[in-house]
Amino acid sequence: MAIKITGTGSALPEKIVTNFDMAELVETSDEWIRERTGIAERRISTGDTVSSLAAKACMEALAMAKRDAADVDLILVATCSPELLLPCCACQVQSAIGAHQAVAFDLNAACSGFLFALNTAYAYLQTGLYKNALIVGSEVLSKLIDWTDRSTCVLFGDGAGAAFIELSKTDEICENGRAAGLEEMVMGSDGAKGMVLACAERSVSNPYYKETEQIKPYVCMDGQEVYKFATRQVPACIKEALEKANLTVDDVDLFVLHQANVRIIESVAKRLKADLSKFPMNLDHIGNMSSATIPVLLDELNRNGKIKKGDRLVLSGFGAGLTYGASILVWGA
Ligand code: UT7
Q: With bands split at pLDDT 50, 70 and 90, how would you rate the model's confidence at 2?
């Protein structure tokens, strides 16, 4: 049984904030941000919420797949910045798009979230429990950022991306002889290093106990540690997934990586000894949107005709947790 992506969609806030705009807020420059990250501008919410962006992306994905919301079995939203703790964002999306039959829940694996959602949905579909799933990465990180901290505020943006995946009973053999579908996956977590990229929630406060330490509810990051982790772990897990599938780097047409930093992507390409032209990037105009980066890039590539039937894609992400993962799929839509 093959599991295929049959529709993709994305939604971005309208407000564009350039590096020059950032330089008016904190002591930074367009030159520093471009050189260190590759980012030129990002989209920032002026009222868009994680659920409204997610719902918009889902509707686009369903329209491309030519499916009705009422047909959806499962909705998985990956997010670390929901506007509500209860109900979960996936239930808000279910209500907004009218997917009355669906089971809906959230998953938080930060920037690896979309990948973890894809793999989780894959496992459900493989068991035959569900026939299809809407998987989403959606973030409004601008509310988790300390806008006076130049080491983090220049990096992130807001947005959402979605994919509709379906189980097909018959194998689809593409013209190049490859069978369409998800071929392999690797996921990992390293909780012991979790505090190198963290964001606090409200502290314990009740009639019997009150936390005395003041918590800053903003993203705190040791950038260099995350950088080292990403440049080591991403190529390692891609290699592991390829080995499990009996494939090599040369068998891959596109590496769709989490868009955090152009230098990280260049380093991964180098370590894999793969041509950088196989690593599409869009972070220059949208920055790092955590769980939304992979599905938004996937949607951009799909809509611009950059992915052909039979192409083999490696999707790979890393982020807070620390978490990481890679999935290999042959495009069949
Ligand atoms: O989804 C995962 C999210 N996280 C990541 O992807 C983070 C991965 N790490 C990185 O991308 C890089 O570590 C950063 C882009 C965050 C930082 O680049 P870096 O080359 O590691 O710079 P650094 O932290 O070593 O800082 C170098 C200098 C410091 O000044 P001093 O101490 O040398 O005087 C910083 O204070 O750059 C300064 N700096 C800035 N200067 C201008 C830090 N942020 C800025 C800024 N503008 N925005």
A: confident
Residues 6+ apart with CB under 8 A from 247: 183, 184, 312, 328
Distance 305 CA to ligand 1 centre (A): 35
Within 6 Å (CB) of ligand 1, which residues are found? 28, 32-33, 36-37, 111, 150-151, 154, 221, 223-224, 226-227, 260-261, 288, 319
Instruction: Encode pLDDT of 130-165 as tens digits.
Output: 999 999 999 999 999 999 999 999 999 999 999 999
Catalytic residue flag (residue 100)? no
Catalytic residue among 80, 88, 132, 258: 258
CB atoms within 10 A of CB 134: 34
* Cis upstream peptide for 217 (omega within 30°): no
Q: How many Å apart are CA 25 and CA 11, to the nearest integer? A: 26
Give the Cα separation of 167 and 177 in Å (integer).
20
Per-residue DSSP letter, 269: H
Closest residue to atom 35 of ligand 1, CA basis: 151
Return the CA Rg of the chain: 19
Reduce the DSSP state of residue 247 to 3 states and report it.
Answer: coil
Bridging pattern class, strands 2-11 and 219-221: unpaired
